[in-house]
Automatic annotation (TrEMBL):
InterPro entries the record matches: Ferritin, Ferritin-like, Ferritin-like_diiron, Ferritin-like_SF, Ferritin_DPS_dom, Ferritin_prok
Keyword Cytoplasm appears in the UniProt entry: no
Protein name: Ferritin
GO process terms (BP): intracellular iron ion homeostasis; iron ion transport
UniProt keywords, alphabetically: Iron, Iron storage, Metal-binding, Oxidoreductase
PANTHER family, alphabetized: BACTERIAL NON-HEME FERRITIN, FERRITIN
């Protein structure tokens, strides 16, 4: 018997769609970068796309584990064209900030509903969002400094690894992580 709907479960269901939309957006940025012969930037966004897909599937697994009805929502088409790397990265940063607000709302809804399991589940995502926003902010700053010298962005990405350090055990991924 599926659990009754709550603000938290409604927000979580919507967040599955937001995570899939973020994954699609990152694919679009990666393809744009690939078409502009920016393989390092493209590679970074292909990887980020997989991360966002895995986040959606973590939420799906959580809902399955808690006997919450799962509906996979449709997602809007991504923005596919950008004036340059700075514009693409600024767009991605704004997306990460929006996702952070959504995750914060999920945590607050779980707390307001006295759902400690929901709160605990969202803590990993809160830590992840701190890193995502920080990493994207750094990439925006690097791209702004590089201005029209796109090769400098590529050099930076080739030299630096993704600074993700969320060492907490991630939630299980429905179907397995990719």
């Amino acid at each position: 018997m599926a659990k009754k709907s709550s603000s938290f479960t409604e927000l979580l269901s919507a967040q599955v769609g937001h995570e899939f939309a973020a994954s699609q957006q990152y694919i679009a940025i990666a393809v744009w970068a690939d078409a502009k012969d920016l393989p390092q930037l493209a590679g970074r966004f292909y990887q980020h796309s997989l991360g966002e897909r895995n986040h959606a599937m973590m939420m799906v697994q959580y809902m399955l584990d808690r006997d919450i009805e799962v509906t996979i929502p449709a997602v809007p088409g991504p923005q596919a064209d950008f004036e340059g790397p700075v514009a693409a990265l600024r767009y991605a940063l704004e997306q990460e900030k929006q996702v952070t607000r959504q995750i914060e709302a999920l945590f607050q809804a779980a707390r307001a509903e006295a759902d400690p399991l929901g709160e605990q589940f969202m803590l990993w995502f809160l830590r992840e969002q701190v890193e995502e926003v920080a990493n994207m902010s750094t990439l925006v700053a690097i791209a702004e400094r590089a201005d029209n010298d796109w090769f400098r962005i590529e050099e930076y990405l080739a030299r630096e690894t993704d600074a993700s350090s969320n060492t907490g055990t991630p939630p299980a991924v429905a179907g397995g992580a990719v």
